[in-house]
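Attaching the record inline, Q. Sequence:
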Amino acid sequence: MSAAESGQAAGEAAGAGEAAAAGEAAAAGEAAAAGEAAADCLFCRIAAGSVRATIVHDDDRVMAFRDIAPRAPTHLLIIPRRHIDSALELTEADGPLLGHLFAVAADLARSEGIAAGGYRLVTNIGDRGGQTVHHLHLHLLGGRSLGWPPG
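Structure, as predicted:
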C-alpha cells in the first residue's frame, strides 16, 4: 500500500479512510459494470463534488487533483469520471478514454513545469499491487529524480 494512496483515503472523512477504501471493491464492481459511480468510492465522490479536493483539471471524461500525501514535489491523481475498478477491467473499447487520460497527463506535466525534465505515470492494480482506492487512476509524479525500481 502506497503512503500517497493511504493518505488519500485517510483524508476523506474522520474514521472512514482505510475501511472505505478496502470495502469499496465489491460494491464498485456492480456499478462499474453499469458505468455508474460507486456510492462508496472515494474518487467517485470527489468527481461528484461531495468530497473536496484541489482540482487541477476537470472535463466531461477526466478529472485530476493533487494528492493529499504527495510522494514528489508534483503528485497529481488523474481519474476517469466513469467508475472503473482498475486497469484490469479495461477493454479495447476504453481506448479513447485511455488516450484522453494520457493526453491530460501530458498537458498537466507541461503546465506543472515538469515535462522537460521528465516525470512518471503509475497505476496500481489490486491490493498486492498497492491499490487502496479501487477506482482507476494515474499518479503523475515529478519535480525530482525518481529512483528505480519503485517500491
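Strands lie at 55-58, 62-66, 74-80, 119-122, 138-142. The helical segments are 3-10, 17-34, 42-48, 95-111.

More tomorrow.
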